[in-house]
Amino acid sequence: MAFGVAARLALLFALATCAVAGVTSEYRRKLEATVDMPLDADVFRVPSGYNAPQQVHITLGDQTGTAMTVSWVTANEEGSSTVRYGRSAEKLEQAAEGRHARYDYFNYTSGFIHHCTLTGLSHATKYYYAMGFGHTVRTFSFTTPPLPAPDAPFKFGLIGDLGQTFDSNSTLAHYEANGGDAVLFLGDLSYADNYPLHDNRRWDSWARFVERSVAYQPWIWTAGNHELDFEPSLGETVPFKPFVHRYPTPYRAAGSTEPFWYSVKVASAHVIVLASYSAYGKYTPQWAWLQQELTKRVDRKVTPWLIVLMHSPWYNSNNYHYMEGETMRVQFERWLVDAKVDLVLAGHVHSYERARRFSNIEYNIVNGKATPAPNRDAPVYITIGDGGNIEGIANNFTAPQPAYSAFREASFGHATLEIKNRTHAYYAWHRNHDGAKAVADAVWFTNRYWMPTDDDHV
């Protein structure tokens, strides 16, 4: 009898162990090269008309969406920096005046880059906007996010390391088909620095490529390593020069001192963007800002979903970029656990991985507690550096799969996060080589503040 009980207990333990075992997907993408689309591809086409605005993109102009910053480029001459906007395409009753700038990078001179912030917007409202007055006018539209509130639903697209290959085009097309209200972009945009002499024409082509989405909904930008463009051999010693000139962020509204770390409040989500390639050591501006953000400015009663974006992942079981995020993890992980952050999203590693709620906050260099342990207060860490860039797939996962890793796959794709209310959000990852609606990994998350239940069952 005693043996029977012991056997049954052993069987139950084995079943429990199997139930939480991580999955390394056996799916294998087609054996084909990751190839950049040629510069004469349709997705890079320059819009018709003299000095027509091109590379149009928007992002939040304040923390909550009552302002929207519109950016575009004119190639022939400066033209107008005015944007007219309103609730009807036929009646653009309001106007805002922007500014323009140009920059030089080695042997490249940019077009005229315009930025204009539209203010006084109402939440959850569709607006039409137009620019290019005096030459060729182009008109677009966007819908502002709802007023921040605990049960305000919202659907984010999650994209990282996109680039401008044929796989990149699949990623963007699949995201468009699956639908979303805004994109949380996890860094590494154009990969212009991968071309000889950091060919900045590839910044222009990339912006024309993504215009079909980002002109109509805000993308929230995270700076990655391919945004650095630091190249002393070319005389370029100012980091992030093209990125800063082209992609503004609402960092001042968030009380930040630099455009690389900031926060926004979208519907029921408080989104914090961190900078993996800016100083974050103790007492640095980013360190001081994050401390104040987590302790003073996060209000889970209004925006219950607390989401952190960064480029270099803290938990990564791929040998590609292995442990590159470790120093930032050591600096900030305990803060995120104490704050009960729901999700941490990263890019950088060109594959997909979803972790369970684990933390490694007990470890120091003398106690030997170096193994991440289950922690219900910890975030779920997700790596989505799989947008489709020219560098290809990272298909060298460590073995065995660590206990904290729930699902991983070496494929290109994108994810969506659909927040339903203050307690539940549905997350889904779509690989590119399935149909647009096919889901390769999905899970329901429960909120760490309002419903901190065990959601590590998948």
Automatic annotation (TrEMBL):
Residue ranges annotated for the Purple acid phosphatase C-terminal domain, each copy included: 378-437
Residue ranges constituting the Calcineurin-like phosphoesterase domain according to the UniProt record: 154-352
Gene3D superfamilies per record: 3.60.21.10, Purple acid phosphatase-like, N-terminal
One GO MF term attached to the UniProt entry: acid phosphatase activity
Catalyzed chemical reaction(s): a phosphate monoester + H2O = an alcohol + phosphate
Keyword Iron: yes
Keywords associated with the record: Glycoprotein, Hydrolase, Iron, Metal-binding, Signal, Zinc
Pfam family, one: Pur_ac_phosph_N
Annotated ranges, domain Purple acid phosphatase N-terminal: 53-144
Documented EC number(s): 3.1.3.2
Signal sequence coordinates: 1-21
Family membership noted in the UniProt record: Belongs to the metallophosphoesterase superfamily. Purple acid phosphatase family.
Name this polypeptide is given: Purple acid phosphatase
